What we know:
Blueprint: H1 3-17, H2 25-40, H3 52-64, H4 80-92, E1 101-104, E2 111-118, E3 121-127, E4 132-139, E5 142-149, H5 157-167
Antiparallel strand pairs: 1-2, 2-3, 3-4, 4-5
Helix pairs in contact: 1-2, 3-4
Amino acid sequence: MTAFALITAGGLAGRALRSDSACSAEGQFARERVTKVLGGLDNAVSLRAPHAALLDELDALSVEHSTPGWDGQEAPPVSYITVQNAKEVIRALPADVPSPELAVDPDDAAISFEWHGGYRKVFSLSVGTSGRLACAGLNGTDRWHAALAFDGERLPALALQSIRQVVV
């Protein structure tokens, strides 16, 4: 049953359940159960991942950059492996971390993630076909860069700490 059909059915059933017509004990029991279930629809939660919109954006970005020369020059297309690695990065982002901006590097078709936290506060993480994350950060006058191993499940502690420093 679609969500629309469920909501519509819920509305109709809700009106029918509010009627004060006499019914058997079984009918009354059924009415109470259905009322309880329909009342719970107000408390529905999303089953999508915290950064599901970012996954959708990545899919659109990968299609847009899937042909050679997508930049009007000689940029290589984004590879399937790069997109899969980027999806793993997104899935590894904790729910309390804001979603970054996404971009594709025209030199190597790596996907970059950027967090901006205000004046002179930025952290960039780039993922390509390898299991390494190229990172760079600027926080006031402090600058750093690193190449970090990524296991496909958890972001390296240094990357996560850097994101949080910038977006605080």
